[in-house]
Automatic annotation (TrEMBL), chain A:
Binds 2 [4Fe-4S] clusters. In this family the first cluster has a non-standard and varying [4Fe-4S] binding motif CX(2)CX(2)CX(4-5)CP. Catalyzes the ferredoxin-dependent oxidative decarboxylation of arylpyruvates. Keywords: 4Fe-4S, Electron transport, Iron, Iron-sulfur, Metal-binding, Oxidoreductase, Pyruvate, Transport. Residues 552-580, 582-611 form the 4Fe-4S ferredoxin-type domain. This is Indolepyruvate oxidoreductase subunit IorA. Its EC number is 1.2.7.8. Its cofactor is [4Fe-4S] cluster. [4Fe-4S] cluster 2 binds at C572, C591, C594, C597. It comes from Desulfacinum infernum DSM 9756.
UniProtKB/TrEMBL annotation, chain B:
This is Indolepyruvate ferredoxin oxidoreductase beta subunit. It comes from Desulfacinum infernum DSM 9756. SUPFAM superfamilies: Pyruvate-ferredoxin oxidoreductase, PFOR, domain III. InterPro entries: IorB_Oxidoreductase, Pyrv/ketoisovalerate_OxRed_cat, Pyrv_flavodox_OxRed_cen. The keyword NAD does not apply. Pfam families: POR.
Length: 621, 186
């Protein structure tokens, strides 16, 4: 009997790529997509696979790299989260026209909710915009299988295929049989064809025409037609039918069975929500009395019905226009559709939970506290990463997209300088990985536009939020080859910044000094300009980093007035508030021994004992 | 559906680890499992939830020959609806507030809480602290839940999963599981 394993959806997709003979996978990490290439990267590090695997500097570069490997006749994949495709939109749109040789599957994970993203955008609409087919898997095991079809489809029609799992597919775990990986690596063949690979606008028109013809043929492909999951009931006899795709289809399936409607309402699953075949759309409009469309997150299938008089969905207002379609939401919609009474609401609805916060001992917290201290009236454009949570500390005022902290700081600079308010300090914060990804052009632009503000690069030596993927500072490829390390300070200087400093935010006084010097530089009328301060402190959660020396767990002395300053302005999870006028305590399980909180208390009530305490006794008393 | 379990806790408490152990226990029993978990931003100290669904493995066509229409395992929703969980395992008492509504009216609550407010409560953190391993409160609670008969699997199943998992924490993990089981005593 084949070995059976429980795989995360993203692991299952990585296995699917390997089974299908993919030869190159490139990605930039982003929740909920990170573990797809993360799984491949781990296999690559252990020497178990031949595939070229890379954490690219950003999604645009990842997709372009994968595309060229496909031009050379080899199966390729790029993986990213939905907003990553915004970054890769330029190559993606154009790749639809040039088409591919070896199968190219672009896996883009959507995040309805959203749980860990800036937008709820529906990548399937990107497929419509670019005119490429998009597949929408049901769950982990199905995603693995459907990837095989995706590669076949891509090669048969020479078109890139979008593969769109949602968070509930990526981050579900399911048991499945383990299969062998395909071992052959086809030799690269690149046939020069400038009219296609380097097409000028005149030829692009022809490529567009070919793309339209490909898309028509793809919509009729027998492998990806919508399928009725409960064929015992016919659309003509039923009071209505449901068309669904992705994880929402599994909710609908379970709910129809639970409500005794499985034999009453036909449920169609569309593995390829775009392009839907014309025959299916017109056939259903002919046969069905009412059609309910369940899909995430925007009306893609619904919009393809030309006559929507009997179609219910997001456009008609029968399905909420935003938010994840949780099974309880789907149950409500299905009950209404079937004319059943509302479900009894369960007692005690969800309480607003705890908000996320930086980990105890995180170097970012120390850096943010220092920034607030040195620039009390500052404007703080922030960026995408763990350190977005600096907003809890009042040290992040804007968060837009990757790299925007620096360009937005420039925008604020121009706004205030042009109205004569030179004194408003601006401090942009950006993580190391985000700086490499999209911060460099913004920094060059700030320099050449004569901006004067401080950029603090929060360098924790990893891409922390998404699971500690390496950055270009690591100096090694995944298969262990040594490559040049690309240093942030060298990059900053090469961008034209004349004031660049590096410090450890744990060393609080010295780091505060660096910030003050940077502030002076931005104000120096003669030689001043942009300043970059690199706050270097490895992520505590990254097992690859050396463990820092632990200071003893801090002691709270009798000067503590329970004022809550440390809780509000420092928000370390290890500092526990017990109400006004009660002394704060330290949770010794959470405390990492960074010692920074001793600099925080306005009443000097937090002390670091000089001798390590005996054992690991708690301060709870 | 054999059993639907909600695991609730705070980021860093090991909710994911407990759900993995339960998944392996299901697999060892020849059952199928579908689980959903929280990743990314929400893991940073926020409320974390894991949905675990355990069900009979349907024999049908061999894998690889199945399609979307014929594989019943592909039609299971990865999420549990409010009011439908058979068991709620709360690694932190805040989990009862945040995720208590998932529990079915006939469901079983198991909660790491002191002082105890009911038969499903246990001071898992206190027990783990006594073992010198405060981060193992998750396994203490799991042992407690299994010993009190709340789960689809037995304490023995969980022991075997932890033994097979091995690693440098093997003995400490097993000790935590046993200490919890003792508190949940038959």
């Amino acid at each position: 009997m084949a070995e059976r394993k429980i795989l995360l959806g993203n692991e299952a997709m990585a296995y699917g790529l390997l089974e299908a003979g993919c030869t190159l996978a490139a990605s930039y990490p982003g929740t909920p997509a990170s573990e797809i290439v993360g799984t491949l990267a781990a296999l690559k590090r252990s020497g178990s696979i031949a595939m070229h695997v890379e954490w690219s500097i950003n999604e645009k570069v990842a997709l372009e790299t994968a595309l060229a490997n496909s031009y050379a006749g080899r199966r390729s994949a790029a993986a990213m989260k939905q907003v990553g495709l915004n970054v890769a939109a330029d190559p993606f749109m154009s790749a639809a026209y040039t088409g591919v040789k070896g199968g190219l599957v672009v896996i883009v994970a959507d995040d309805p909710g959203p749980h860990s993203s800036q937008t709820e955008q529906d990548t399937r609409q990107f497929a419509m915009l670019a005119k490429v087919p998009v597949l929408d898997p049901l769950g982990p095991a199905h995603a693995r299988d459907l990837l095989h079809t995706a590669f076949d489809l891509s090669e048969d029609y020479e078109v890139p295929v979008l593969f769109r799992p949602t968070t509930r597919v990526c981050h579900a775990r399911q048991d499945m049989e383990i299969r062998p990986f395909r071992q052959d690596q086809p030799a690269p063949v690149f046939e020069k064809d400038p009219a296609r690979w380097a097409a000028t606008p005149k030829f692009r028109f022809l490529l567009h025409k070919q793309l339209n013809e490909k898309l028509d043929a793809v919509s009729r492909d027998s492998r990806l037609q919508p399928v009725q999951l409960n064929p015992a009931v016919s659309a003509e006899k039923a009071a209505g039918v449901i068309v669904a795709s992705g994880a929402v289809c599994t909710h609908a399936s379970e709910i129809l069975k639970d409500l005794g409607l499985w034999e009453e309402i036909p449920l169609y699953y569309a593995p390829m929500p775009f392009p839907l075949p014309e025959d299916f759309l017109t056939g259903l409009l002919d046969q069905a009395r009412r059609i309910l469309v369940l899909e995430e997150t925007q009306p893609v299938m619904e919009a393809q019905f030309r006559d929507r008089a009997k179609v219910q969905g997001r456009l008609s207002g029968h399905v909420p226009r935003e938010g994840e379609l949780l099974p309880e939401t789907v149950e409500g919609i299905v009950r209404t559709f079937a004319g059943l009474p509302e479900a009894a609401a369960p007692k005690g609805a969800a309480a607003p939970g705890r908000r996320p916060t930086l980990c105890a001992g995180c170097g970012h917290r120390a850096a943010f506290f220092a920034i607030r201290k040195v620039f009390p009236r500052g404007i703080y454009p922030g960026d995408i990463g763990c350190y977005t949570l600096g907003l809890n500390l009042g040290a992040v005022d804007t968060v837009l997209c990757m790299g925007a902290s620096i360009s937005q700081a420039a925008g604020f600079y121009h706004a205030f300088r042009d109205s004569g308010q030179n004194s408003r300090p601006i401090v942009a914060t950006i993580g190391d990985s985000t700086f490499y990804h999209a911060g460099i052009p913004a920094l060059i632009n700030a320099v050449i536009q004569g901006c004067r503000f401080v950029v603090v690069v929060l360098d924790n030596a990893t891409t922390a939020m998404t699971g500690h993927q390496p950055t270009p500072a690591e100096g090694n490829t995944l298969d262990g080859r040594s490559v040049p390390k690309v240093s942030i300070e060298d990059l900053a200087r090469a961008c034209g910044v004349r004031h660049v400093s590096v410090g450890d935010p744990y060393d609080f006084e010295a780091f505060t000094g660096l910030l003050k010097a940077a502030k002076e530089h931005t104000r120096d009328p003669e030689n001043g300009g942009m300043a970059v301060v690199i706050a270097r402190r490895p992520c505590l959660m990254d097992r690859k980093q050396p463990k820092p020396d632990r200071k003893p767990v801090p002691a709270i002395n009798d000067k503590c007035q329970g004022c809550g300053f440390c809780i509000t302005h420092f928000e370390c999870p290890a500092l526990v508030f017990h109400g006004k006028e009660e002394a704060v305590t330290v949770d010794d399980v959470l405390c990492s021994g960074c010692g920074v909180c001793a600099h925080v208390c306005p009443h000097d009530a937090i002390e670091i004992p000089s001798q390590p305490q005996a054992g690991k006794e708690s301060n709870h008393s | 559906m054999k059993q639907q379990i909600i695991l609730s806790g705070l980021g860093g408490q090991g909710v994911l680890f407990v759900s993995k152990i339960l998944g392996e226990a299901a697999l060892a029993r020849g059952l199928s499992v579908l689980m959903s978990e929280t990743h990314g931003m929400a893991q940073r100290g926020g409320n974390v939830i894991s949905h675990v669904k355990v069900f009979e493995r349907e024999k049908g066509k061999p894998e690889g020959e199945r399609d979307a229409a014929t594989d019943p395992a592909w039609h299971v929703s990865p999420l549990i609806r409010p009011g439908h969980a058979h068991v709620l395992v709360a690694l932190h008492e805040e989990g009862v507030k945040a995720h208590g509504h998932f529990l079915s009216p006939n469901g079983t609550l198991v909660c790491n809480r002191t002082p105890r407010t009911g038969p499903g409560d246990v001071d898992a953190t206190g027990i783990a602290r006594k073992l010198g391993n405060p981060v193992a409160a998750n396994l203490v609670l799991l042992g407690f839940a299994a010993a009190s008969g709340a789960l689809f699997c037995s304490l023995d199943d969980l022991r075997r999963v932890l033994e097979k998992l091995g690693g440098p924490r093997r003995d400490a993990n097993l000790a935590a599981l046993e200490a919890g089981a003792e508190a949940g005593g038959e």
